[in-house]
Specification:
By secondary structure, the chain is an alpha/beta fold. It contains twelve helices and eight strands. The protein has an eight-stranded mixed sheet, sandwiched between helices.
Length: 270
């Protein structure tokens, strides 16, 4: 396991080496998960690209730091980690809040970002009232009180019916996140708004969403795609909010097609 102290917080990360001639792909995960959700995507890309993934603060094996957070805290953590690893000009793939972190990273540190893969995310996720209510519920009753509702949004009905062991495992992952980290990131989601910044994205970008996503439905993700000049939009069939778990082969196929379309497979000279 690999750890680093970034902005006073211990971050758990994974760096997988790849061809020096190709850009690094960086994966940022969703609320209530750790970087293990990317496993079935990473194993299909490892060897062809160098890969960085990490547990954002307050999640997985990373430290909690001072909660609540702003989205800038999460952006600063990722920027600091990439600086430590001497990674620049990377392809940033972010899921849900990870997609907001990716948008924020481009806004603050465009030198670190060559292209954006924005999965099941938006320029603004939910409303202030929604997140305030979520935080109040968490503070009163804990993460387990919302787990069943969250899992319904994460995964499709067939997954719930046919993958009971996996579902139980992902439920464990969710409820074992630090309460302060989960609630603190809810606060970051409450306040994050990249509506204006999305229109200033001038690098290749693609917005991807599961057709049965209950957290950021297809119309929400499409609205982000429409804000980003020249962006692509792809719908993944038979997937909920976390297609890297339900449909990793399709997600990888879309990622590789995007990399090929924009000739991202080689490092830029800049």
């Amino acid at each position: 396991m690999q750890f680093a102290n970034i902005n006073g917080v211990t971050l758990h990360y994974q760096l997988i080496g790849g061809p020096a001639s190709k850009p690094v792909i960086v994966f940022a995960n969703s609320l209530g998960t750790d970087f293990r959700i990317w496993r079935d995507v990473i194993i299909r890309l490892a060897g062809d690209f160098a890969i960085v993934t990490y547990d954002k603060r307050g999640h997985g094996l990373s430290g909690v730091g001072t909660s609540p957070y702003s989205i800038d805290d999460h952006v600063g953590d990722l920027a600091g980690l990439l600086d430590l690893l001497n990674v620049k000009d990377a392809i940033i793939c972010g899921l849900s809040v990870g997609g907001l972190i990716a948008q924020g990273l481009y806004a603050e540190r465009p030198d670190l970002v060559r292209a954006l893969i924005l999965c099941d995310t938006a320029h603004k996720i939910g409303t202030a009232d929604f997140w305030k209510a979520r935080i109040a519920t968490l503070e009163q009753n804990g993460i387990e009180s919302i787990a069943d509702t969250v899992l319904e949004r994460w995964f499709t009905p067939p997954f719930h019916r046919e993958s009971s062991a996996a579902l139980a495992g992902y439920r464990n992952m969710l409820i074992r996140q630090p309460l302060a980290g989960y609630a603190g990131t809810c606060a970051a989601l409450r306040d994050a708004d990249f509506t204006e910044a999305a229109g200033r994205i001038s690098i290749p970008a693609i917005c991807i969403v599961g057709d049965q996503d209950g957290s950021t439905p297809p119309d929400v993700v499409l609205s982000l795609a429409k804000l980003i000049p020249g962006s692509r939009y792809e719908l993944i069939r038979d997937a909920g909010h976390i297609p890297c778990v339900e449909q990793p082969e399709m997600l990888v196929a879309i990622i590789l097609a995007f990399i090929d379309e924009f000739k991202l497979g080689e490092k830029s000279n800049g």
